[in-house]
Amino acid sequence: MVKPVDGRDEWLLTDLLGRPMGVIRVTDTGALLIEPDGNARMTMTGMRCGPFPSLDEALAAIETHTRGVCRRESGETKP
């Protein structure tokens, strides 16, 4: 799951059980970087973590590497 952080240019990543998996941050240049944390460090080892031009491309990279599905929290409106 990906959830926007209010007032910050980043999204929290959690697994379906709500455990923290890291963040996706927007850099000063507008690119996005994936910063794995917790159990995701091992899961995302060897994965390209950025830069990505969009949130959708960052999520697609996670899906491809983990063979899973990334879902945005309902009601999410950030680009």
Explain what you see.
By secondary structure, this protein is an alpha+beta fold. It has helices at residues 40-43, 55-66, and strands at 2-4, 10-14, 20-26, 32-36. The mean pLDDT is 88. Strands 1-2-3-4 form a 4-stranded antiparallel beta sheet, with no helix packed on it. The longest helix has 12 residues, at 55-66.
- Structural class by secondary-structure content: alpha+beta
* Total of helices: 2
Strand element count: 4
Largest sheet: 4 strands, antiparallel
Shape: globular
Average pLDDT works out at 88
**CA gyration radius, whole angstroms:** 11 Å
In N-to-C order, the SSE pattern is EEEEHH
Beta strand %: 25-35%
Distance between the termini: 16 Å
Helix content: 10-25%
Question: How do the strands line up in the largest sheet?
Answer: 1-2-3-4
Which regions have little confidence, pLDDT < 50, spanning 5+ residues?
none
Describe how the helices and strands are arranged.
Layout: E1 2-4, E2 10-14, E3 20-26, E4 32-36, H1 40-43, H2 55-66
Antiparallel strand pairs: 1-2, 2-3, 3-4
Using brief descriptors, characterize the structure shown.
4-stranded antiparallel β-sheet, globular, single chain, alpha+beta, 79 residues
Brief rundown of the structure:
This protein is of the alpha+beta class. It is built from two helices and four strands; from the N terminus they run E-E-E-E-H-H.
